[in-house]
User: Fold Methionine aminotransferase from Flavobacterium gilvum.
Amino acid sequence: MSKLPNVATSIFTIMSKMATEHNAINLSQGFPNFPVDERLTQIVSKLAFEDVHQYTPMAGYPPLLNKITSLIKTSYARNIIPETELLVTAGATQAIFTTLLALLKPDDEVIILDPSYDCYEAPILLSQAKPIRVPLNDDYTPNWNTIANSFSEKTKMIITNNPHNPTGKILTESDLITLENLLEQHPNVVLLSDEVYEYITFEQKHISTHTRKKILDRCITVSSFGKSFHVTGWKIGYLVAPDYLMKEIKKVHQFLVFSVNSICQVAVSEYLDLVNINEISTFYQEKRDFFRSLLKNSRFQLMPCEGTYFQVVSYAGISDENDVDFCKRLITDYGVAAIPISNFYADGKDLKLIRFCFAKDNQTLEEAARRLSRV
Assistant:
């Protein structure tokens, strides 16, 4: 008997498979197609011949823990204790899965803001807890009245994603204050803040939960080196949590993966001495602006993109098809793969919006835009 009877093949898998079958340009899945920084690959090449191939300590390679501690201090002026508040994970998905499995009990409720990434719900269900899917407004701002009314005596956690996938929106100062006030009214609720795109923001920087002193004692913040350093296949991330929550998270982590890929941890640790992490947002803003300029004369309507490497567009002026069928036709008739936004909603809400990934080289973006301009 299935523990996840309603979980089907991921839309990302479906669209990528169709893209391969039809030799389409794949702007569906969120992975870069350009080379990794040569400084990083040179570090990996060097490390292949060094003694870095055995288990690291369960919580992470100690020099990397110290580097992350310094990174958080530099980025957010927050001091953390690496021995008790920091954990290196096998990607952000494992960090989220481990956290939910560790902290949820049967019948607990977890508030998820839709449209939401698909890795949140499964571990909630596997914990025999209940996901409470609350839609954002149609402009993807939070409806705090609806969110507040979704809290109950069973609410254990609320999950936020900032910057937000798939929409590219970021939470405002007003949003964070409202969230803090809401948590103050519900002292037993913890916050899981998914901030994997934290270093990919544009005109307005995202406000990290690392900076919110009122809720640090009940917040788990998740980050991703895979996203920040264009090495998604490495599956390396980290989470920060207060000691009393981290103790429970580590109990699950040690039996789920025990420790994370050793050579990747050492490589990232050394790379952090070389890279200016603030250059990442500039790099992706150029990508965003380039892709938007290529599409400005198309029939697609460009939605705001404040962060992440995703561009949402409306096709409402082009077709009345549902977004899944439209995306499939984009592949078969025009040779470009995108992701339908309805798949990020519990109820399949269809606003005629689709998502493109612009973390691609300029040649790929130019050819994709050329094809999309024919639609």
Remarks:
- DSSP finds 14 helices and 13 strands in the chain.
